[in-house]
Structure formats: C-alpha cells, structure tokens
Hints:
There is one protein chain. Helices cover 31% and strands 22% of the residues. With 279 residues, it is α/β, with parallel strands linked by helices. Residues 63-72 and 149-161 have low confidence and may be disordered.
Amino acid sequence: MDGKLCDGWVHSLNGQTLCFTGKVLIDGAWTVRKDCEEIAQQLGASWKSDFSRKITVFVHGDLASQAVTDPHREYSKKLVRAAWERDRGYHVCVVDGDGFADLIDGHPARCRELQRAHGIDDHVLVLPQTGDGILGGPLQQHRVGRHEPGALALDLAHLDKGTEAHESTIAALIEHLARQHVELRGHARNAPRFDAGWSRGDDVFIAEVKSLTGASEDQQIRLGIGQVLYYAHQLQLARTRGRVRPVLVLEKQPTDPRWTSLAETSGILLTWAPDFAGC
C-alpha cells in the first residue's frame, strides 16, 4: 500500500509486510504469532515484529467489536501506532482474525475503520461493520464463455443466453447501486452462497439473481424465492451482524403480476432491471 489510502480492501497477502498482535482467532482456533507468520510467508508476505512505516497490513488479534482496554499490552501499543499513522496521512490497513483467514483462503479482507474512545487516552476501537460474516468482497461481473456448435448446440445456446442475461443483470445492478455510492458485494467465505449483497444502515440485503431468458419464468421465480428465503433463514439463525433483507432480482419484469404480492407477503423485495425499484 505504501501508506496510500486503500480502496477499503486488502486483496491479497502477496507482497504485503505484516505486523501481528499475538494470537489470532482463525476460524475458531487460536493461532500463535509464529504460525501466522509462517502462513503469511508461504503466501508471499513478509512480517516484522515491530511496528514501522514498512508495515502495510496490521493483523489485529482481538475481536473486532471490542475495545483495546489495556494500553500497556504490546498489541495495544501497535494499534495505537496504526491509528496515529493514519491520523498523519500514512494509511496502514488493519484486518481482524476473520479477515486474515479470508486472505489465507484467497479472498479479500475488509480494511477496518479505527476510532479513538472519547475521553480516554490510548484506547482505540476497531469498528465492526454491518454485514460482517455475511458480505464478502466487491462483486465483479464474470465473463461469459461461448461454446462450439455441436450436438447440444440448442441447449448450450439457451444456457449461454441465460448466463449472459444473469451477468448483464448483475452488471446493471452494480452500476445502479454505484450511483448511490453503494458497493455490491459477494457472499462472505463462510456464508450461504447468495448471488449478491449490499448494506444500508443496519440492513444487509442478500439477493438471488434470476434470468428469465430461455427458461420457465414461473420455475425461475419459484426457485429464486426458495433460495433467498433459505439463505436468509440460515443467516438469521447464525445471528450475524445486521438485519437480513432477502431480495429476488430478475432480468426483467415478470409477466404475471401476482409474484410481486407473493414476494411481499413472504418478506422478499422483488425487483428487476433496468430500474431496480426499491434498491
């Protein structure tokens, strides 16, 4: 990062210089610093025991939602130093244990916001964010492959059309939300595999995206409703941070108007391209 402001994400460990707080909670297991350092090195990162401006990523070993309350502990001093550097225009990315685990697994990690506790010297908060444990990194539109003509040309053509419509709908949703300064994101590493998600305030929207090209409209919508309700139920049971709002995003307006009232009765926001009403 070289001290420059990031885009809100640490995308890879490769080439980073890390500093650790101590034990890090990785997927429920406390991992000592030595093991963290070895893992990071295997993935192309280097590490230093002392904090300096050579550090690009600081791995905070405490829970992201807790305040650091002991200014004499080593990791507290490092976190205070990271906040001090940020205050002076030198950006140091801060990730928590979940973020470090994401990076190990090849997923981007959210760069955490820091806040000083009011009226208390040397107390720094690593702020939790709406969607933690639900939303992953920024969602990118995928390129759609084409198939050579052959015996299954008709079926593959339908498959390609559906895939193209799916990806075009996602691309349009990315642009629609970007105009509102909202980032469309994928699912978190350990979350249900919904198609897209975003947050506003305390609400976390999880969406299934369905194309209606070359497919049974009723079948696609029924499938989407079942999927997004199932995902929302899983997340509610997991007690993740934020109020989960299920969304079904369609390629276009459905022919039958009854789907809107059915979705509303089920607690689902039904929307479609190009206007994405309600989003």
